[in-house]
Input
Amino acid sequence: MSRADEAVARVSLWKGENVQVSPLSGGLTNENYLVATAGMRFVVRVPGQSTELLAIDRANEVHNTRAAATTGIGPRVLEVIPDLDVMVLEFIDGPTMSARSLQSVEMAKRMAASFRRLHSAPSFLQDFNMFRLIENYLAIVEAHHVTIPPDYRDRLPTVAEIERAVAAGSLPSVPCHNDLLCENFIDDGAALRIVDYELSGNNDPCFDLGNTAQEAEFDDELRAALCEAYFGKTDAQQLARMNLFALMSDVGWTLWGAIQAKISAIDYDFKGYYTSRWTRAVEAMESRQFRRWIQHANS
Output
């Protein structure tokens, strides 16, 4: 019996019912399944192997998913099988977003509205700090002989400079998602719902803004629109911080991808993933814009 079969068999919600199970695409860490029974649909999330090496805490994920659901933005948690780390979640009916579908001022405004709701959720269980996560990942890289870009550690002084710059205008910590792949947005017709709270934690809200801008490949105009829609005004310092956090999402997820390339059983080109993210990060650090971001963030 596969882990998915075992998980589905142990869920009490459909005990004794005939169920149809089909895989859902898109997950880079876990296996996700659509379960249909008695005219209802559910999502079952089965964790990937060795995900503790990615700094994923399943108790934190369950707590935060429940907290996010109270805002109407996250999916409801319907059942948990703790010894399998399996969650049964509300199925959200609507199209899954992509970078292309998010690249408009109107969608940027809807994303900002979803973030304001999510960031008002009850406090999450744990905190999230990308700079500390990078230190943790580097220790895992060392301990497990993970291959990373050869010049990665050479850039750590620049990472320290970014940390000092974003600290200058830091905002109160709020419940944040922290891993905003475009596919984690689902449009239910009323709001952009946000799923997958594996790496969620209390954080500076500008990290969510920057991370999602990077994932959706927003240009300068859309980044400015997202920032203005979230804060309700133009704010050069917070826009700069948002752009620096966008860069840091590439720096951090480079290591995530390298560790996944070592441990994951998912059929995905993790080497290509982390190589392209690192290339983009280096280009940003060497760009003329970078110095302007540092200056505005410190102002």
Notes: The chain is about 50% helix and 15% strand.
